């Protein structure tokens, strides 16, 4: 049983806890730190003033084959390095010349003892990582009397690890900040009208809560009274506060500005916006791309091969009479140190980690490096119309009546019929429902993509697309080309025109996609031809297809995929889920329906269409950084390995090929987090 000395959030063993007694699968103790993501058996001891600043896990979670100890506790590391450097310097004093070898050995033990312990453990586990390579190189150097070489390699290695770890931790802290937005407390109203602070997990749906100025919104809710400005930057990346008033929806983890708000919760803790976003961020580590999977496989094969080559380099040339064993063993040691694959094993996953984090800062959740790679290659962008290219805020702009019915009667019946549907068009019409009109409705049936069929006050009502009326043999020649048509007892009664406004950032998004390398943009919609053409022209879409049912959209998507390398589809509704799943990359707008978000690979949390362009630019930058790191690491290692085999490389060059290249690659990866975006 693990022991937590304070109420914390622990992710050990893939479980979440927020209590003093933790039953994580890993056996360890936590003292002060608030976030532990280690999956190995170990102990944590936090430095005073550095709550979980560094983790001294015996195994590295940055990737297979690395073997880094990551024990960069600042005070401990600096003390060890300081003592080691002093011992090494003292060993050169003439007065202690006789003890010089022993001082050098003491120096390397102070700096490298924890590294050597892990190297020996790796040997018994048959885990051929760089700590094992370092241990072999140092032991062999001591055996042939190269005490200074052994000490300096150990000191430089420990120093490099410390600097590298600080860079990695900086990147991780920025990403972890994205998952630290979930409020734990809520001000819950009691039966007597007073408010008390309780754990947000204990607040059920439809509870009344109070949100004071400066507090984070604990749960998704709707404002009952009060007005304020709300900072949603932690959710969407948008720095401009949003003004809210009675009736407005609020998302958990946003920060209330200067007003007192009384709200009614619309979700519990587990279903809140913040919880769902955190789940998506954590889920992103599971979907690895081809590049990341290749590096993992490469490290597993590469290190054993290097050890065989190093052994051959130390043994075969002397046996063939090409020089002394000592000379070739020295070259072998340089070869071993230079060969460590850590620059690749750490920096490549970190590149994607930073890329996903950079997207999150722009209000985009990418569900893994697999989709970062695909985003960088997207050459066709397909969009739904309503709620994606348009605002989704529909309104009735025209009513047509035929067959002796008045416009009021047509709108009255259509509104009553559509009041039972959740479709955006239906809701826009239902908003005009008459309070004094209470018909008896029976045999209600909603036909996907077409409309509604039911019996109202004994009359058969059809309300929906022209296709619905045609399939039921209704003569619609008298009706204009309206998106919603009405028939009563098999006779056309009229129609309703619905309008939707274009999103402000839609034209800039389409233009930005072209600049980012997307060759073709397409709009798929179930709306009529006239409305589709109007929106398509305003947005700047290359092509559009109108009057589509959900299955028609899937068919069009298959056709587009066959003609392009990578096709992405952006939509927002439950009807878009099949197309989202069928696209190479599915992009869901905002936190709409659960079905759409589940089917999507990318979620635009901010509901800002332009953030899709940001995500593509970041994905391209991420892939560029990853490719550079791979090429840079391999070129430097190959050069130093060849020079080492020929006796032209010294040990400091080998250390640079390992630790130096790793630090440069890590710092290069962290740059992705600083991407500021472009002007479109």
List descriptors.
680 residues, Calcium-transporting ATPase, cytoplasmic transduction domain A, 5 domains, seven-stranded mixed beta sheet, six-stranded antiparallel beta sheet, elongated, transmembrane, EC 7.2.2.21, P-type cadmium transporter activity
Strand elements, count: 24
What's the gyration radius in Å?
32 Å
**How many H/I helices?**
21
Q: For the residues shown, what is the average pLDDT?
A: 78
Structural class: alpha+beta
What characterizes the major β-sheet?
7 strands, mixed
Work out the strand percent. Answer: 15-25%
Helix content: 40-55%
**Overall body shape:** elongated
Number of domains: 5
Runs in which pLDDT lies below 50 for 5 or more consecutive residues are 1-72
| Distance, first to last CA | 55 Å
* Oligomer designation: single chain
Strand order of the largest sheet: 12-24-23-22-13-20-21
EC number: 7.2.2.21
Main location: membrane
GO molecular function, one term: P-type cadmium transporter activity
Organism: Youxingia wuxianensis
Can you put this structure into words, describing what you see?
With 680 residues, the protein is α+β, with helices and mostly antiparallel strands. The chain has 5 domains: 1-53, no CATH class; 74-173 and 289-351 and 626-673, no CATH class; 185-271, Calcium-transporting ATPase, cytoplasmic transduction domain A; 364-391 and 502-607, Rossmann fold; 395-499, Calcium-transporting ATPase, cytoplasmic domain N (3-Layer(aba) Sandwich), CATH 3.40.1110. The strands form 5 sheets. The protein has a 7-stranded mixed beta sheet with strand order 12-24-23-22-13-20-21, with helices on both faces. Strand 18 and strand 19 (491-499) form a beta hairpin. The two termini are 55 Å apart. Residues 1-72 have low confidence and may be disordered.
